[in-house]
Design a protein that fits this description.
With about 220 residues, this protein is an all-alpha fold. The protein contains 10 helices and no strands. The structure holds calcium ion.
Length: about 220
């Protein structure tokens, strides 16, 4: 009988010691420094896979698997890719949200070939927007609908389009912006030459054995 009591007491003390040990272990565990579960549930690779499928499937719900900055970036990428401004509204970071909304407006304007919404954007994006929409235009009258610097920028684009279409560097000279003017001249210079203007490029004529400086020979 006495033996039984000793065994029970020993077991009790043993379990108590175990419980105290476990308590001390959990208490001193450096939870914040070396977390057992990583604070970011997804690593960079997984996060970019999520982002990829969110964009490919146009499924912004995938972004919910991410959090904080990663989630914002995910939403921003899907929103800007599809020009979906409603999606921009879900972004937490205010600066990113504004950029997202601007970019969505830009995409929408280009898609619908409507230059009016471009004017509400900040300069760099506005100019890119106008440039894309006017990229195939050759009528200067179009620019009369714009004013100030926007009108000048519009004219610069149109002169560049005309210069390229007519392979006429003199039209580049009408461009106001020195940078745009230089770009225009470079684009003309880089065009494949047709020295005699017979419609067959010099390099083709050389291959064919005709005279690149004689329009009768082609
Ligand atoms: Ca020729």
């Amino acid at each position: 009988m006495a033996k039984k009591i000793i065994i029970i007491i020993s077991l009790f003390i043993g379990l108590l010691a175990l419980a105290i040990g476990l308590f001390l272990f959990l208490k001193n565990k450096p939870a914040s420094k070396i977390p057992l579960v990583p604070s970011q549930p997804y690593g960079f690779y997984e996060a970019s896979k999520i982002l990829d499928s969110a964009v490919k499937e146009r499924n912004p719900g995938q972004c919910d698997k991410l959090s904080g900055e990663e989630k914002d970036n995910c939403l921003n990428t899907v929103a800007t890719f599809y020009g979906d401004k409603d999606l921009c509204q879900l972004i937490q970071n205010e600066t990113l949200k504004k950029d997202c909304l601007d970019f969505a407006k830009y995409r929408q304007a280009v898609k619908s070939n409507d230059w009016q919404p471009c004017l509400a954007l900040q300069t760099v994006l506005k100019n890119q927007c106008l440039r894309e929409i006017f990229s195939s235009q050759s009528d200067l009258n179009l620019c009369k609908k714009l004013s100030g610097a926007d009108q000048t920028f519009c004219q610069d684009i149109i002169y560049r389009n005309q210069a390229l279409a007519q392979k006429n560097p003199e039209l580049c000279a009408k461009i106001q912006s020195p940078v745009e003017k230089a770009n225009c001249q470079k684009e003309i210079a880089d065009l494949p030459a047709d020295s005699d203007n017979d419609g067959v490029l010099d390099m083709i004529e050389r291959v064919n054995g005709t005279d690149p400086f004689d329009p009768q020979s082609k």
